[in-house]
Amino acid sequence: MPFGVIYIAIMPTSDTGLDKTLAALGVTEAAQVVPRFAQVRSQFDGQFQTVADESEWKIFRDTWLGRKSGVLTLITDNWLKPATPDLKRVVGQQLNELRAHVESQIEARRLTVESGAEEAALARDRVDLSLPGVLRLVGSHHLIRQVFQEIEDIFFSIGFSIVEGPEIETPYYNFEALNIPEFHPVRDDMDTFYLDSKGAATPLLLRTHTSPMQIRTMEKQKPPVRVIVPGKVYRRDNPDATHSFAFHQIEGLAVDTDITFCDFTGTIEYFVKQFFGPSVKTRFRPSYFPFTEPSVEFDVSCPFCAGTGAAATGGSCSKCKGAAWIELFGAGMVDPAVYGFVGYDPKKVSGFAFGIGIDRLAMLKYGIDDIQVFFQNDVRFLRQFP
Ligand code: PHE
Questions:
Q1: How confident is the model at residue 9 (pLDDT cuts 50, 70, 90)?
Q2: How far apart are alpha carbons 101 and 69 in whole angstroms?
Q3: Average pLDDT rounded to a whole number, residues 53-60
Q4: pLDDT score recorded for residue 69
Q5: Which of 191, 247, 289 most suits a substitution to test ligand 1, by most atoms within 8 Å of the C-beta?
Q6: Ligand 1 close to Cβ of residue 174 (< 6 A)
Q7: How far is residue 307's CA from residue 317's CA, in Å, rounded to a whole number?
Q8: Is 214 in the pocket of ligand 1 (CB under 6 A)?
Q9: What whole-number distance in Å separates Cα of residue 174 and Cα of residue 197?
Q10: From the CB of 289, is ligand 1 less than 6 Å away?
Q11: Which residues does 220 contact at the CB level (< 8 Å), separation at least 6?
Q12: Residue 4 pLDDT more than 50?
């Protein structure tokens, strides 16, 4: 190969005789010149088809038009310049034709290669809006949270507002100020988690109910008071289908100058009908809490057997065990002794309080027979309540 050029795959080979003079190739007449150029041209046309992208195009261009050793330069140097005067005219004319062809084709190829690259880039970047989107898993509220919200909405609608309080309490708020002195036997019922609080000014415990917030609320504000207190509470209960060491309550407290037992039962009845449906009935039975007097236990007529105690399929209703009533929650008129702890005048104010167990209500309403599922976070359970 002449001129030390590195020939690549698409270079014309020396078959075309580019490295020799026409004389050396035995070309002596004008008639022999034309086929030589035709051969070069057909080689160009053949290679031309294989140029697919910009980098191939560049190599192709340099191979043919490169100033130092492109094919056209070789022809000029080896065929045209040394040609005999007889042949010079025809070689020059053929070379011009070939150059015009090569230059125009290479330019045309540049345009197609460039627009091809553009199209490919466009195709690569095109967003197909008809493709299904990526589904991201969005969580949902836990059933307990949903029931909290249901109950909160009901009490919002009759003028209650929400307050929240600490889950770590002092015995004073959890017991004493609720009229449960240290020797009182009900403390035994509340198997309390005491914290290891050596050196603290007062012992600390996980609240066993939301009732301490009755005290904290009344300490902070004068009547009228109408609040509910949603939150977590803790007792040292062994876990089974109806017990958990952590569960949820909503405390309610209404105190004003003229609140009667009728306001109390009317409020509870309104809530129960909103929650279980208008056809349920409520009743209350005497009960005992140190911080309410009188104290009651509210029952609802069984929403599952329409208060008949009988299952539709015969036998007794599995929800109320044939009793026709279901025990709901404890409540009562605030014991006047409690007002003494918060600086309210028991002669001037009256009120009621209730403590609703959320887990129990959720189980009842949604037919769940094991409280533990609320805490296991098994998505097969959670997904049933989106
Ligand atoms: N705090 C009581 C409990 O957890 C429930 C209750 C609240 C009773 C308010 C009466 C008034 O059992």
A1: very low
A2: 18
A3: 87
A4: 85
A5: 289
A6: no
A7: 9
A8: no
A9: 16
A10: yes
A11: none
A12: no
